[in-house]
Amino acid sequence: MLLNQFLILGALLFCMGVYGVLTRKNAVMVLLSIELILNSVNINLLAFDAMNGNSDGNVFALFIIAVAAAEVGVGLAMVLLIFRNRKNISLDDLSEMKG
Amino acid sequence: MVLASDIQVAQNVGFAIIALMMIIAGVGVIAARNVVHAALSLVVVMAGAAANYVLLSAEFVAVTQVLVYIGAVMVLFLFGVMLTRAQVGKDAELNNKNAVVAAPVALLLFGVLAYVLLKGFSDDKIAATTGNGAKPQDTAVISDLIFKPYLLPFWALSFVLLAAVIGAIVLARKD
Asked: Which residue of B52, B76, B83, B84 has the fewest CB atoms within a 10 Å radius of its CB?
Protein backbone atom coordinates (compact mmCIF):
# COMPACT_ATOMS: atom_id res chain seq x y z
CA MET A 1 0.00 0.00 0.00
CA LEU A 2 1.18 3.50 -0.69
CA LEU A 3 1.53 5.93 2.16
CA ASN A 4 -0.15 8.60 0.07
CA GLN A 5 -3.51 6.86 -0.24
CA PHE A 6 -4.02 7.23 3.52
CA LEU A 7 -2.64 10.76 3.62
CA ILE A 8 -4.90 11.95 0.79
CA LEU A 9 -7.92 10.35 2.44
CA GLY A 10 -6.99 12.17 5.64
CA ALA A 11 -6.58 15.46 3.79
CA LEU A 12 -9.98 15.04 2.12
CA LEU A 13 -11.72 14.36 5.44
CA PHE A 14 -9.86 17.30 7.01
CA CYS A 15 -11.10 19.68 4.30
CA MET A 16 -14.66 18.36 4.65
CA GLY A 17 -14.41 19.07 8.37
CA VAL A 18 -13.13 22.60 7.73
CA TYR A 19 -16.03 23.23 5.34
CA GLY A 20 -18.47 21.93 7.94
CA VAL A 21 -17.03 24.11 10.71
CA LEU A 22 -17.26 27.18 8.48
CA THR A 23 -20.78 26.65 7.12
CA ARG A 24 -22.79 25.08 9.92
CA LYS A 25 -24.84 27.31 12.16
CA ASN A 26 -26.01 24.67 14.62
CA ALA A 27 -23.42 24.21 17.41
CA VAL A 28 -23.86 20.42 17.55
CA MET A 29 -23.14 20.20 13.82
CA VAL A 30 -19.92 22.21 14.31
CA LEU A 31 -18.82 19.73 16.98
CA LEU A 32 -19.57 16.86 14.56
CA SER A 33 -17.33 18.49 11.95
CA ILE A 34 -14.55 18.88 14.51
CA GLU A 35 -14.76 15.13 15.14
CA LEU A 36 -14.25 14.62 11.39
CA ILE A 37 -11.06 16.69 11.57
CA LEU A 38 -9.73 14.77 14.58
CA ASN A 39 -10.36 11.43 12.86
CA SER A 40 -8.43 12.53 9.78
CA VAL A 41 -5.47 13.46 11.97
CA ASN A 42 -5.54 10.02 13.56
CA ILE A 43 -5.46 8.34 10.14
CA ASN A 44 -2.38 10.38 9.24
CA LEU A 45 -0.60 9.50 12.49
CA LEU A 46 -1.22 5.78 12.10
CA ALA A 47 -0.18 5.80 8.44
CA PHE A 48 3.17 7.38 9.32
CA ASP A 49 3.45 4.96 12.23
CA ALA A 50 2.96 1.96 9.93
CA MET A 51 5.59 3.34 7.56
CA ASN A 52 8.19 3.99 10.25
CA GLY A 53 7.59 0.74 12.12
CA ASN A 54 7.74 2.00 15.70
CA SER A 55 4.64 2.34 17.85
CA ASP A 56 4.89 5.99 18.91
CA GLY A 57 2.12 7.00 16.53
CA ASN A 58 -0.27 4.59 18.20
CA VAL A 59 0.34 6.33 21.53
CA PHE A 60 -0.29 9.74 19.99
CA ALA A 61 -3.50 8.47 18.39
CA LEU A 62 -4.71 7.14 21.75
CA PHE A 63 -3.93 10.51 23.36
CA ILE A 64 -5.89 12.30 20.63
CA ILE A 65 -8.88 9.99 21.18
CA ALA A 66 -8.81 10.79 24.92
CA VAL A 67 -8.54 14.55 24.33
CA ALA A 68 -11.38 14.38 21.79
CA ALA A 69 -13.59 12.64 24.34
CA ALA A 70 -12.86 15.40 26.88
CA GLU A 71 -13.51 18.06 24.24
CA VAL A 72 -16.89 16.61 23.30
CA GLY A 73 -17.91 16.42 26.95
CA VAL A 74 -17.10 20.06 27.69
CA GLY A 75 -18.37 21.24 24.29
CA LEU A 76 -21.76 19.62 24.65
CA ALA A 77 -22.07 20.91 28.22
CA MET A 78 -21.46 24.43 26.88
CA VAL A 79 -24.01 23.89 24.11
CA LEU A 80 -26.51 22.72 26.69
CA LEU A 81 -25.85 25.83 28.81
CA ILE A 82 -26.27 28.12 25.79
CA PHE A 83 -29.51 26.36 24.90
CA ARG A 84 -30.80 26.73 28.46
CA ASN A 85 -30.07 30.46 28.49
CA ARG A 86 -31.12 31.41 24.95
CA LYS A 87 -33.53 28.68 23.76
CA ASN A 88 -31.53 28.09 20.58
CA ILE A 89 -27.99 27.03 19.69
CA SER A 90 -27.42 29.11 16.58
CA LEU A 91 -23.80 30.25 16.63
CA ASP A 92 -24.60 33.30 14.50
CA ASP A 93 -26.65 34.75 17.35
CA LEU A 94 -23.75 34.59 19.80
CA SER A 95 -22.32 37.96 18.90
CA GLU A 96 -22.24 39.80 22.24
CA MET A 97 -18.45 39.90 22.24
CA LYS A 98 -18.28 41.51 18.82
CA GLY A 99 -16.73 44.96 19.20
CA MET B 1 12.22 -5.31 -8.63
CA VAL B 2 8.54 -5.39 -7.82
CA LEU B 3 7.39 -8.65 -6.34
CA ALA B 4 3.81 -9.82 -6.64
CA SER B 5 3.61 -9.82 -2.86
CA ASP B 6 4.49 -6.11 -2.77
CA ILE B 7 1.33 -5.02 -4.56
CA GLN B 8 -1.11 -6.26 -1.90
CA VAL B 9 -4.22 -6.42 -4.07
CA ALA B 10 -6.54 -7.48 -1.27
CA GLN B 11 -5.50 -4.61 1.01
CA ASN B 12 -5.83 -2.07 -1.79
CA VAL B 13 -9.31 -3.27 -2.78
CA GLY B 14 -10.33 -3.15 0.86
CA PHE B 15 -8.90 0.32 1.21
CA ALA B 16 -10.77 1.53 -1.87
CA ILE B 17 -14.11 0.26 -0.56
CA ILE B 18 -13.52 1.73 2.91
CA ALA B 19 -12.32 5.07 1.53
CA LEU B 20 -15.32 5.39 -0.79
CA MET B 21 -17.66 4.63 2.12
CA MET B 22 -15.91 7.20 4.32
CA ILE B 23 -16.03 9.92 1.67
CA ILE B 24 -19.74 9.39 0.97
CA ALA B 25 -20.50 9.41 4.70
CA GLY B 26 -18.28 12.48 5.18
CA VAL B 27 -20.31 14.35 2.57
CA GLY B 28 -23.34 13.19 4.52
CA VAL B 29 -21.97 14.77 7.70
CA ILE B 30 -21.42 18.18 6.12
CA ALA B 31 -24.46 18.21 3.83
CA ALA B 32 -27.24 16.52 5.84
CA ARG B 33 -30.35 18.59 6.45
CA ASN B 34 -30.99 16.76 9.70
CA VAL B 35 -28.81 16.66 12.80
CA VAL B 36 -29.52 13.00 13.53
CA HIS B 37 -28.65 11.96 9.97
CA ALA B 38 -25.35 13.85 10.23
CA ALA B 39 -24.54 12.11 13.52
CA LEU B 40 -25.30 8.68 12.02
CA SER B 41 -23.13 9.48 8.98
CA LEU B 42 -20.32 10.31 11.40
CA VAL B 43 -20.70 6.79 12.85
CA VAL B 44 -19.96 5.40 9.37
CA VAL B 45 -16.90 7.65 9.03
CA MET B 46 -15.60 6.51 12.41
CA ALA B 47 -16.19 2.85 11.60
CA GLY B 48 -14.32 3.32 8.33
CA ALA B 49 -11.47 4.96 10.21
CA ALA B 50 -11.35 1.95 12.57
CA ALA B 51 -11.19 -0.36 9.54
CA ASN B 52 -8.32 1.72 8.17
CA TYR B 53 -6.48 1.33 11.47
CA VAL B 54 -6.82 -2.44 11.16
CA LEU B 55 -5.37 -2.20 7.64
CA LEU B 56 -2.48 -0.23 9.14
CA SER B 57 -2.01 -3.03 11.72
CA ALA B 58 -2.97 -0.82 14.67
CA GLU B 59 -5.56 -3.15 16.19
CA PHE B 60 -5.54 -1.68 19.68
CA VAL B 61 -6.28 1.83 18.41
CA ALA B 62 -9.03 0.40 16.20
CA VAL B 63 -10.72 -1.26 19.17
CA THR B 64 -10.33 1.92 21.22
CA GLN B 65 -11.85 3.91 18.37
CA VAL B 66 -14.90 1.66 18.30
CA LEU B 67 -15.31 1.73 22.08
CA VAL B 68 -14.69 5.42 22.71
CA TYR B 69 -15.93 7.10 19.55
CA ILE B 70 -18.75 4.90 18.29
CA GLY B 71 -19.70 3.82 21.79
CA ALA B 72 -19.31 6.83 24.05
CA VAL B 73 -18.92 9.97 21.96
CA MET B 74 -21.83 9.20 19.65
CA VAL B 75 -24.16 8.50 22.58
CA LEU B 76 -23.09 11.85 24.01
CA PHE B 77 -23.85 13.52 20.66
CA LEU B 78 -27.28 11.93 20.42
CA PHE B 79 -27.99 13.09 23.98
CA GLY B 80 -26.88 16.57 22.95
CA VAL B 81 -29.22 16.51 19.96
CA MET B 82 -32.06 15.28 22.14
CA LEU B 83 -31.53 17.76 25.00
CA THR B 84 -31.17 20.80 22.77
CA ARG B 85 -34.22 19.72 20.78
CA ALA B 86 -32.21 20.63 17.69
CA GLN B 87 -35.08 20.34 15.27
CA VAL B 88 -35.21 16.60 14.69
CA GLY B 89 -36.69 16.66 11.25
CA LYS B 90 -36.11 19.08 8.43
CA ASP B 91 -34.37 22.30 9.27
CA ALA B 92 -33.61 25.18 6.95
CA GLU B 93 -31.77 27.08 9.67
CA LEU B 94 -28.83 24.68 9.78
CA ASN B 95 -26.34 26.51 7.57
CA ASN B 96 -25.21 30.10 7.54
CA LYS B 97 -24.34 32.20 4.52
CA ASN B 98 -20.64 31.31 4.57
CA ALA B 99 -20.80 28.51 1.99
CA VAL B 100 -19.69 30.90 -0.77
CA VAL B 101 -16.46 31.53 1.11
CA ALA B 102 -16.06 28.14 2.79
CA ALA B 103 -16.22 26.03 -0.39
CA PRO B 104 -13.26 27.79 -2.09
CA VAL B 105 -11.30 27.76 1.16
CA ALA B 106 -11.81 24.00 1.63
CA LEU B 107 -11.07 23.24 -2.04
CA LEU B 108 -7.93 25.36 -2.02
CA LEU B 109 -6.77 23.76 1.21
CA PHE B 110 -7.30 20.31 -0.26
CA GLY B 111 -5.48 21.30 -3.44
CA VAL B 112 -2.45 22.55 -1.53
CA LEU B 113 -2.41 19.53 0.78
CA ALA B 114 -2.75 17.04 -2.09
CA TYR B 115 -0.02 18.78 -4.10
CA VAL B 116 2.40 18.80 -1.18
CA LEU B 117 1.66 15.19 -0.23
CA LEU B 118 2.01 13.90 -3.79
CA LYS B 119 5.26 15.80 -4.21
CA GLY B 120 6.69 14.91 -0.82
CA PHE B 121 5.70 11.25 -0.42
CA SER B 122 5.35 10.35 -4.09
CA ASP B 123 5.70 6.57 -3.83
CA ASP B 124 6.65 5.84 -0.23
CA LYS B 125 5.30 2.42 0.68
CA ILE B 126 3.87 1.02 3.86
CA ALA B 127 5.59 -2.24 4.74
CA ALA B 128 3.62 -5.42 4.23
CA THR B 129 1.65 -6.30 7.33
CA THR B 130 0.99 -9.93 6.40
CA GLY B 131 3.12 -12.80 5.16
CA ASN B 132 6.86 -12.96 5.59
CA GLY B 133 8.43 -10.12 7.54
CA ALA B 134 5.13 -9.17 9.11
CA LYS B 135 5.52 -7.07 12.21
CA PRO B 136 2.18 -6.66 13.96
CA GLN B 137 1.88 -3.82 16.42
CA ASP B 138 2.08 -5.59 19.71
CA THR B 139 -0.22 -4.12 22.34
CA ALA B 140 2.48 -4.86 24.91
CA VAL B 141 4.80 -2.51 23.03
CA ILE B 142 2.17 0.24 23.18
CA SER B 143 1.66 -0.23 26.90
CA ASP B 144 5.43 -0.16 27.45
CA LEU B 145 5.58 3.12 25.55
CA ILE B 146 2.68 4.68 27.46
CA PHE B 147 3.95 3.72 30.88
CA LYS B 148 7.66 4.40 30.32
CA PRO B 149 8.60 7.29 27.99
CA TYR B 150 5.10 8.80 27.77
CA LEU B 151 4.23 8.48 31.46
CA LEU B 152 4.22 12.22 32.15
CA PRO B 153 1.92 13.06 29.20
CA PHE B 154 -0.30 10.19 30.33
CA TRP B 155 -0.60 11.74 33.81
CA ALA B 156 -1.27 15.14 32.29
CA LEU B 157 -3.97 13.60 30.12
CA SER B 158 -5.56 12.02 33.19
CA PHE B 159 -5.81 15.46 34.78
CA VAL B 160 -7.25 16.89 31.56
CA LEU B 161 -9.96 14.23 31.59
CA LEU B 162 -10.69 14.82 35.28
CA ALA B 163 -10.91 18.58 34.73
CA ALA B 164 -13.15 18.05 31.70
CA VAL B 165 -15.51 15.77 33.62
CA ILE B 166 -15.76 18.21 36.56
CA GLY B 167 -16.13 21.15 34.18
CA ALA B 168 -18.89 19.44 32.23
CA ILE B 169 -20.78 18.67 35.43
CA VAL B 170 -20.39 22.26 36.69
CA LEU B 171 -21.52 23.71 33.35
CA ALA B 172 -24.50 21.44 32.76
CA ARG B 173 -25.78 21.33 36.35
CA LYS B 174 -29.11 22.96 37.12
CA ASP B 175 -29.02 25.00 40.31
From this structure: B83
